[in-house]
Write a structure and sequence with these properties.
This protein is α+β, with helices and mostly antiparallel strands. About 25% of the residues lie in helices and about 30% in strands. The protein contains four helices and four strands; from the N terminus they run αβααβββα. A four-stranded antiparallel sheet has the order 1-4-2-3. The radius of gyration is 13 Å and the shape is globular.
Length: about 90
């Protein structure tokens, strides 16, 4: 599991107004990104977010390539605007 530990006093500097966040999203067969590559899912453009890591089973992939294809059970770690991420995923 990827964890980011930023002291609460510094959080405002790193995440102004808490609009930017590190979010964990689990892909299932009903997810809009299921079966799509990172590039084709358009998460970066639509959500103004960056995928920083993916967990697939016991494997952890940091900074995955844009041709990585999402599958059922993948855990995606995304940094971006929390409201836009929810709209896209």
């Amino acid at each position: 599991v990827l964890e980011v530990n930023i002291p609460e006093t510094e959080q405002e500097n790193h995440f102004p107004h808490k609009e930017m966040t590190l979010q964990k999203v689990v892909v299932n067969t009903e997810s809009p990104v299921y079966g799509l590559s990172i590039k084709n899912a358009g998460i970066r453009e639509k959500a103004q977010a960056l995928i920083v890591g993916i967990e697939r089973g016991a494997n952890r992939i940091l900074n995955p390539s844009s041709d990585f294809t999402f599958d059922n059970g993948d855990v995606i770690w995304i940094v971006g605007n929390h409201k836009k991420i929810k709209e896209v995923i």
